[in-house]
């Protein structure tokens, strides 16, 4: 039992109070009883003394000391509490009852009083016994004084019995009181004890502790108050913990924000920036997959970045899909799935499952976004709004760096293409800057439905350019219909283009679809469009303007859902000036002009083309022809090629068929080619330096003196152009 507990103190206090009360009552009772006993003893002894004094009067007056002695002995024998008797007269002891001699000290007990007065005093013997000494005058003191000594042993014995009885009763009362008090204290303090234990548990951090509120009203109110206080404390602690967690998360996000913004500026490569951002965003959201999709400045290239690779695509479907996505992404948010689904060039860089995605737009001060961050939200990542807002803030700070990195990446790729141009493109071959410009122009215009006019000499590959535009366009899955306008007589060209109804003219025994109807949804290639007769030019102009036409002999207006690509070897502007071609039709066709250079203007491509055709025909004819003799290549470069690429292809095919070993020699070439090449005077040919100087002059003239554009047309860097201009005297 702990002494510092309230129940122990209350129990000890109650017991002490009971004991003090019992002792006080016992003391008062014993005091009263002692007084009554003493009064009774005094009274009895006084009565006995007076009786004996009367009896002793005659014996003293007659001087019968023997009789007086016998009386004293007899009285002592019959009274147990009578300890001694003696008679004193005039200071002399007449008789006494002491066996061992009279104690002289007793004479002085009543010396101060008068002999004729009655006196009572308590005396103590040398052995410590207490006596009640009574002095009774005999015959009013004239016959002396009778002294009686009554022992107090009986009195003390009765007092001890009284104390024993009182002690027993008190102990019984105390035990009963202790039991009763214990029950009362337990009943009164058990709720307080439960509350104390609850407070101790709460002080150790156990906030879910509660106290039973059943019982008396006061106890119930106290327990309810404690429970309410604990509920509030638990709620407050929970909110504090949540606020601490939110504060820690906010501090972590702030540190991540500052670190990302600080470190991203030190990165130069777009791929490094993308990988760094995605890896840091993964620390915030714990996602599995994410990708950055970015447009270049011209929105002609889509850049797809994840944490491992960088991919670009110019596919029109991919560009159109991403442009639509950017129009719908205005703020940070989560979508159940990407709708519409991304096309193949983008899908393989993202994910095929239809899962929820978080979209974060990437924009600068421009009115529209140029990219977006796509995060896959799955079971591991639920994309909370606070984390997405943080990522959005980081993206906003990093958008300028991303835009500059995109521009730098596209510039580096452009320089790389110029320094190491692709040799083949959609079946076309050429590293010459003029052909590289044609390749880039085809890529740029393919995604639109704009009419394209391809001009160039015969055999330069106009049909291949038209096929490339169709293959790279959104209409690539629909027909590509070729119409050679120079191959039909003027009377049949209209029927060939637009079709005819049955009976429209002699021989029209059934209705027939025209080429525009056959190419529904696809591309119509009008080859040699400069040879179309004037009446048909009017109807073709109407198709280009309204996309409507009627069959020959028909009245129903049909829709022309086609893209028109035209080609001609004629100089149409001169034809317009000479009145042989409609001016309005020319401008309708010349929306996107593409001019193919003749083969003689790109001599560097001649060996490349020759090798390409050599590989093609050695597979077709199964001949083990591996290379050209150097004299053959020299003749190829020096030849003017009036028939352009088509003539070169026919020449290589002839040489492969004529070759007898694994190398093509001069004698394997066509006889007309050999005779032309031998007649040509070597000194009449322009040198490579002269051709280079002429190419630079033409590039500067077409670029109106803009050296950057001229360098791009030539496929060289600006510094290389400056060096060559100094070399050939273009700069003073």
Automatic annotation (TrEMBL):
Query: Ranges for the Sigma-54 factor interaction domain?
Result: 428-657
For biological process, the GO terms are:
regulation of DNA-templated transcription; signal transduction
Q: Mind listing the UniProt keywords for this protein, alphabetically?
A: Activator, ATP-binding, DNA-binding, Membrane, Nucleotide-binding, Transcription, Transcription regulation, Transmembrane, Transmembrane helix
Domain HAMP positions:
186-238
- Bilayer-spanning residue ranges: 162-185
> Which is one Gene Ontology cellular component term of this protein?
membrane
Q: Which PROSITE patterns match?
A: HAMP, SIGMA54_INTERACT_1, SIGMA54_INTERACT_2, SIGMA54_INTERACT_3, SIGMA54_INTERACT_4
- Which GO molecular function annotations are given, in alphabetical order? ATP binding; sequence-specific DNA binding
Report if keyword Cytoplasm is assigned: no
Is the Transmembrane keyword given for this protein?
Answer: yes
Tell me what this protein is called: Two-component system response regulator HydG
- What is the protein's species of origin? Desulfosoma caldarium
Give the classification, highest ranks: Bacteria, Pseudomonadati, Thermodesulfobacteriota, Syntrophobacteria, Syntrophobacterales
């Amino acid at each position: 039992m702990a002494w510092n507990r309230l129940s122990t103190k209350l129990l000890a206090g109650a017991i002490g109070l009971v004991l003090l009360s019992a002792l006080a009552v016992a003391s008062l009772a014993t005091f009263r009883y002692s007084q009554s006993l003493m009064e009774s003893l005094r009274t009895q002894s006084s009565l006995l003394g007076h009786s004996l004094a009367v009896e002793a009067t005659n014996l003293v007056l007659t001087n019968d000391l023997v009789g007086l002695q016998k009386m004293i002995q007899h009285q002592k024998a019959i009274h147990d509490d009578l300890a001694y008797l003696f008679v004193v007269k005039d200071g002399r002891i007449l008789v006494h009852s002491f066996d061992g001699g009279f104690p002289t000290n007793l004479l002085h007990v009543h010396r101060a009083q008068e002999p004729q007065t009655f006196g009572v005093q308590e005396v103590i013997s040398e052995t410590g016994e207490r006596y009640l000494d009574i002095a009774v005058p005999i015959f009013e003191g004239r016959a002396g004084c009778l002294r009686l000594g009554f022992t107090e042993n009986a009195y003390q014995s009765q007092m001890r019995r009284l104390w024993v009885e009182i002690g027993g009763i008190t102990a019984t009362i105390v035990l009963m009181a202790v039991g009763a008090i214990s029950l009362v204290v337990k009943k009164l303090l058990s709720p307080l004890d439960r509350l104390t234990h609850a407070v101790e548990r709460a002080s150790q951090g156990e906030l879910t502790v509660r106290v039973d509120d059943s019982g008396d009203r006061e106890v119930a109110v106290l327990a309810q108050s404690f429970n309410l206080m604990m509920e509030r404390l638990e709620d407050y602690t929970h909110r504090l913990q949540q606020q601490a967690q939110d504060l820690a998360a906010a501090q972590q996000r702030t540190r991540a924000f500052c670190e990302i913004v600080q470190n991203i500026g030190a990165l130069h490569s777009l791929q490094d920036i993308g990988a760094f951002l995605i890896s840091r965003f993964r620390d915030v959201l714990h996602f599995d997959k994410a990708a950055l999709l970015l447009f270049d400045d011209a929105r002609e290239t889509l850049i797809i970045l994840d944490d491992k690779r960088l991919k670009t695509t110019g596919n029109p479907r991919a560009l159109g899909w991403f442009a639509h996505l950017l129009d719908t992404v205005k703020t940070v948010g989560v979508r159940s799935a990407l709708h519409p689904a991304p096309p193949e060039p983008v899908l393989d860089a993202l994910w095929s499952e239809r899962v929820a995605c978080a979209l974060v737009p990437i924009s600068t001060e421009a009115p529209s976004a140029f990219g977006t961050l796509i995060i896959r939200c799955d079971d591991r990542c639920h994309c909370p709004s606070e984390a997405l807002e943080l990522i959005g803030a980081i993206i906003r700070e990093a958008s300028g760096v991303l835009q500059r990195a995109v521009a730098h990446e596209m510039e580096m790729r452009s320089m790389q293409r110029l320094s190491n141009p692709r040799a083949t493109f959609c079946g076309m071959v050429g590293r010459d800057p003029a052909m590289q410009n044609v390749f880039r122009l085809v890529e740029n215009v393919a995604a639109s439905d704009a009419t394209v006019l391809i001009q160039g000499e015969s055999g330069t590959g106009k049909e291949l350019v038209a096929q490339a535009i169709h293959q790279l366009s959104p209409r690539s899955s629909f027909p590509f219909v070729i119409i050679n306008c120079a191959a039909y007589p003027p009377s049949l060209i209209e029927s060939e283009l637009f079709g005819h109804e049955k009976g429209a003219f002699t021989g029209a025994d059934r209705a027939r679809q025209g080429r525009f109807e056959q190419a529904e949804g696809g591309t119509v290639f009008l080859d040699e469009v400069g040879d179309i007769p004037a009446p048909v030019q009017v109807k073709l102009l109407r198709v280009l303007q309204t996309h409507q036409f009627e069959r020959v002999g028909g009245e129903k207006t049909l829709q022309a859902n086609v893209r028109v690509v035209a080609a001609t070897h004629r100089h149409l502007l001169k034809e317009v000036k000479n009145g042989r071609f409609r001016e309005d039709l020319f401008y309708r066709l010349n929306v996107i002009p593409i001019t193919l250079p003749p083969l003689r203007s790109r001599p560097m491509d001649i060996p490349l083309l020759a090798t390409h055709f050599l590989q093609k025909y050695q597979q077709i004819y199964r001949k083990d022809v591996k290379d050209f003799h150097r004299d053959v290549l020299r003749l190829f470069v020096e030849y003017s090629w009036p028939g352009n690429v088509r003539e070169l292809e026919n020449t290589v095919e002839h040489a492969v068929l004529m070759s007898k070993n694994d190398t093509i020699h001069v004698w394997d070439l066509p006889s007309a080619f050999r005779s032309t090449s031998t007649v040509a005077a070597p000194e009449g040919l322009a040198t490579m330096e002269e051709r280079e100087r002429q190419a630079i002059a033409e590039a500067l003239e077409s670029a109106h003196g803009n050296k950057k554009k001229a360098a791009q047309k030539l496929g060289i860097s600006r510094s290389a152009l400056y060096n060559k201009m100094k070399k050939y005297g273009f700069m003073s």
